[in-house]
Amino acid sequence: LRVDYEDECSVQPIGDLLVEPLLEMLRKICASADATLVSDYNKGFLTKQLCNRLLDEVMQKPVLADVKPDQAGYFVGVHMMTPNLTEGSHMLGLTEVGSPEVVAPMLAKRLNTEVFLTAGSRGISIADKSGVVDIVEQPHRVKVSDESGCGDTAAATILLAKLCGATSIEAAELANAAAAVTVSMVGAYAPTPEEVLRMLGS
């Protein structure tokens, strides 16, 4: 059982005085990294000032942003973004959840990035900056135990796969398999490479 408590104070944006020490810490971490993955839970950490300064530091290497709709505009031009279908629809200002093949290319053009739009059992829709769409269906049918962490799993898998030389379609195929492992477990589960390989072969 997971129970989260928060109040208005816990989701307020961080103050300007924290930006510089946080950037100094992040510079040291990112300097030795091959890429940067920004995951946002809309708790006030990713302010516009912090994001702008951070991206100035890290954009020479691949950057993947997995962020909430309110912060999407801070990440225009990054290399990749991985919203889910509901988030992507909200980023476009739609009043209802749109179809993946429509939402993905609109997002890619608006945010000037490659979009991997995750849609659960419907798979992942990939759109490049020109709006060309590839649909990578989810072939793995598993008993859903807990959806916590599926988006994080997909984002991390896509970035790792791309760093290893995978095509975008191959990265999405791996992400589908990894997310299928995660959703079959209870809690925010991080699948092992062996589990992902077994799922690919199932």
Task: Provide an overview of this structure.
β1, α2 and β2 form a beta-alpha-beta unit. The chain contains 7 helices and 6 strands; from the N terminus they run αβαββααβββααα. Helices cover 40% and strands 11% of the residues. Strands 1-2-3-4-5-6 form a 6-stranded mixed sheet, sandwiched between helices. The chain has 202 residues and is α/β, with parallel strands linked by helices.
The largest sheet has its strands arranged as 1-2-3-4-5-6
Low-confidence stretches: none
Helix-strand sequence? HEHEEHHEEEHHH
Radius of gyration: 17 Å
| Global morphology | globular
What's this, in brief?
The chain is an alpha/beta fold and 202 residues long.
Task: Record the SSE blueprint.
Blueprint: H1 19-31, E1 36-39, H2 48-58, E2 63-66, E3 80-81, H3 85-91, H4 100-111, E4 114-118, E5 124-127, E6 133-136, H5 150-163, H6 168-183, H7 193-200
Parallel strand pairs: 1-2, 2-3, 3-4
Antiparallel strand pairs: 4-5, 5-6
Helix pairs in contact: 1-2, 3-4, 5-6, 6-7
